Amino acid sequence: MNNTLPMVRLESVHKSFGSLEVLKGIDLVMEREKVTCLIGPSGSGKSTLLRCINHIERINSGRIFVDNDLVGYTERGGKFYEMKERDTIRQRQQIGMVFQGFNLFPHMTVEQNIMEGPVGILKVPLAEARADAHRLLTRVGLAEKATAYPNQLSGGQKQRVAIARALAMKPKVMLFDEPTSALDPELVGEVLEVMRDLAASGMTMIVVTHEIAFARDVGDHVVFMDDGRIVEQGAPSEVLSRPSHARTQAFLRGVL
Ligand code: ADP
Ligand code: MG
């Protein structure tokens, strides 16, 4: 695979729910080992965009490539065919996703939550999966919580476990959908710190966030979306400090 190609590429992506057009032609490139931050008002289509990349939602037209594979389609003999569910699941495994709500399995311990995917889906041997889970827990600063249950953790700790769980599948790219929005303000920092470390390690990340300071410090590329379209994008220093569009300026002033 040619590693100079972008990790994620969207070409003219359209997505509607019934008569409501939510993505109105999105062209976007997300580079390898970079952090792309998606910002924009509520309802502008940010979550839908992530869900389309992960093939949770199916697009109406356009194309999405992840690591040069066409999402939802397989190529045979130069022709493209719609993927079977089994192949879609395999493709989705290469894409980690962290949601606003923590989505941990409440009846499983922290380490069981992290081991579930590797053992159940990737068929990694138990001992190896457990060692990997502990390594990841250390990485997110929760080594001592391996045998705790989710309801014994703070929101910030749950979200760090959710990140470790996604990483356990060894994804090519990590998608974050407002990972700190549900947290009490004093718990936001610990989650952003883990994300900052992950970015420094070279993970390709796409982050929907309202944390403008994070986008400025950690983001390599910032994309401002409004009403299903990309209004402007560029380096954080441009988009966040010198936005050229009135909508972006209004959003950053907190008006939208
Ligand atoms: P954002 O994440 O930027 O707040 P969303 O992608 O969640 O925006 O939503 C964009 C628009 O699509 C909203 O109007 C929302 O109500 C609508 N929408 C999202 N998901 C669905 C769905 N499954 N069915 C119908 N409408 C949806
Ligand atoms: Mg959203």
Automatic annotation (TrEMBL):
<comment type="similarity">
    <text>Belongs to the ABC transporter superfamily.</text>
</comment>
<dbReference type="InterPro" id="IPR017871">
    <property type="entry name" value="ABC_transporter-like_CS"/>
</dbReference>
<keyword id="KW-0067">ATP-binding</keyword>
<dbReference type="InterPro" id="IPR003593">
    <property type="entry name" value="AAA+_ATPase"/>
</dbReference>
<dbReference type="GO" id="GO:0016887">
    <property type="term" value="F:ATP hydrolysis activity"/>
</dbReference>
<dbReference type="GO" id="GO:0005524">
    <property type="term" value="F:ATP binding"/>
</dbReference>
<keyword id="KW-0813">Transport</keyword>
<keyword id="KW-0472">Membrane</keyword>
<protein>
    <recommendedName>
        <fullName>ABC-type polar-amino-acid transporter</fullName>
        <ecNumber>7.4.2.1</ecNumber>
    </recommendedName>
</protein>
<feature type="domain" description="ABC transporter">
    <location>
        <begin position="8"/>
        <end position="252"/>
    </location>
</feature>
<dbReference type="GO" id="GO:0005886">
    <property type="term" value="C:plasma membrane"/>
</dbReference>
<keyword id="KW-0029">Amino-acid transport</keyword>
<dbReference type="InterPro" id="IPR027417">
    <property type="entry name" value="P-loop_NTPase"/>
</dbReference>
<keyword id="KW-1003">Cell membrane</keyword>
<dbReference type="InterPro" id="IPR050086">
    <property type="entry name" value="MetN_ABC_transporter-like"/>
</dbReference>
<dbReference type="InterPro" id="IPR003439">
    <property type="entry name" value="ABC_transporter-like_ATP-bd"/>
</dbReference>
<dbReference type="InterPro" id="IPR030679">
    <property type="entry name" value="ABC_ATPase_HisP-typ"/>
</dbReference>
<dbReference type="GO" id="GO:0015426">
    <property type="term" value="F:ATPase-coupled polar amino acid-transporter activity"/>
</dbReference>
<keyword id="KW-0547">Nucleotide-binding</keyword>
<dbReference type="Pfam" id="PF00005">
    <property type="entry name" value="ABC_tran"/>
</dbReference>
